[in-house]
């Protein structure tokens, strides 16, 4: 054990999370467990399913009780990270958010008491671990549909290269305008949409969990990187949603709060105009199928200077500014009373 690691463990008080480096999935699971043991009245761990390679998908529920003092059912918030394996800042920021809600409960009491928070730090643990162990720029899941589905003919590239291409782009795998623009049907491509909608156990588990609570979830945030954008649906078309103005003004509220913390500049808009059109995406599904009004994809730091290789020294600053944005939006949406 290195000296650094020893000091870290001594200072950690029961978990390894430092927010000074990008942690492996097991460190994050230990931290979730630590929170649920230390704050049992506030934190509940829910295993919503398993990845293709059998890793647990853990949602943390942060709640002071499902009903308000008046006896009304509280609204809920969903936040996830780690859809795309190589976007390491995403799970780090979601973990930071969780830490603020739980360990800084007193400061954030209003938004914690105002809603039930469902937080999934790593949606794609197989891909995340693979990006640590083998290929830093891995994006997709690690499923293997060519072996699973023997009837499916081998793709051209796998025929030539003699290997199967693994993984599906989870953010093209949702069952809403699946397989249309900006999604590939080639398993060897980065944007492979999968053999069918919800072919991945990860997207299936998350969608089942959200559908069971869709009437309560008022805010849906899925964290990605990079490019500093607060993206609104739709991703699959240039058409605006009926409540485009509401989504835009709430998005501006978020990025204004973020900007006040650090001066970091974000753009607000929808993907076809700011980036490119994509179909089968998670936020489109959250709005179009689950009916969650405020559904956003957040593209975190940076602007491209480091891109996916954002230095770990920026984790805390990115966490701070993003949490300010989340707080502003949560206050406006779930703490109206
Ligand atoms: Zn992404």
UniProtKB/TrEMBL annotation:
UniProt KW keywords: Carboxypeptidase, Disulfide bond, Hydrolase, Metal-binding, Metalloprotease, Protease, Secreted, Zinc
Superkingdom to which the source organism belongs: Eukaryota
Pfam family membership, one: Peptidase_M14
Extent of the signal sequence: none
Catalytic residues (UniProt): 299 (proton donor/acceptor)
Function statement: Involved in the digestion of the blood meal.
Protein name listed in UniProt: Carboxypeptidase B
This protein's encoding gene: CBPB_1
């Amino acid at each position: 054990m290195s000296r650094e690691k020893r000091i870290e463990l001594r200072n950690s008080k029961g978990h390894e999370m430092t927010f000074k480096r990008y942690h492996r999935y097991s460190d994050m699971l230990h931290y979730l467990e630590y929170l649920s043991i230390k704050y049992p009245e506030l934190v509940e761990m829910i295993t919503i399913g398993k990845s293709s390679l059998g890793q647990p998908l853990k949602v943390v529920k942060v709640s002071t009780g499902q009903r308000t003092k008046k006896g009304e059912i509280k609204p809920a918030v969903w936040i996830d990270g780690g859809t795309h394996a190589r976007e390491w800042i995403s799970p780090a920021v979601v973990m930071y958010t969780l830490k603020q809600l739980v360990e800084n409960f007193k400061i954030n009491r209003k938004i914690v008491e105002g809603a039930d928070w469902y937080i999934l730090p790593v949606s794609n643990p197989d891909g995340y671990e693979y990006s640590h162990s083998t290929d830093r720029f891995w994006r997709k899941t690690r499923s293997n549909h060519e072996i699973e589905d023997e009837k499916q003919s081998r793709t051209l590239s796998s025929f030539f290269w003699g290997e199967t291409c693994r993984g599906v782009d989870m953010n093209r795998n949702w069952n809403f305008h699946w397989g249309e623009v900006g999604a590939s049907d080639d398993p060897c491509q980065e944007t492979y949409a999968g053999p069918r909608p919800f072919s991945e156990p990860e997207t299936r588990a998350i969608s089942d969990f959200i559908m069971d609570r869709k009437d309560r979830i008022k805010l849906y945030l899925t964290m990605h990187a990079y490019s500093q954008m607060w993206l609104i649906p739709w991703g699959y078309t240039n058409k605006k949603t009926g409540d485009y103005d509401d989504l835009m003004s709430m998005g501006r509220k978020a990025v204004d709060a973020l900007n006040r913390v650090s001066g970091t500049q974000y753009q607000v808009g929808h993907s076809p105009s700011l980036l490119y059109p994509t179909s089968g995406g998670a936020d489109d599904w959250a709005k179009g199928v689950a009916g969650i009004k405020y559904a956003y994809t957040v593209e975190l730091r940076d602007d491209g200077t480091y891109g996916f290789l954002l230095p770990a020294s920026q984790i805390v600053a990115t966490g701070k500014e993003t949490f300010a944005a989340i707080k502003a939006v949560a206050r406006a949406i779930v703490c109206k009373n």
